[in-house]
Amino acid sequence: MLIGNWLYGTGEALLITADIGQTPGTVLAQGIQNLTGDSIGWTSFYISVGVMFLWIPLRIKLGIGTVFNIILVSVAIDVMTPLMPQPDSYGFSVIQVLIGIMVIAIGSAFYIPSNLGPGPRDGLMTGLHFRTGIPIGRVRFGIEAVLLISGWLLGGSVGLGTVLVTVLIGEAVAVFFGVVGRVFKPVAQAPESSSGNLL
Question: Among 141, 144, 168, 191, which one is least packed by beta carbons within 10 Å?
Answer without folding.
Answer: 191
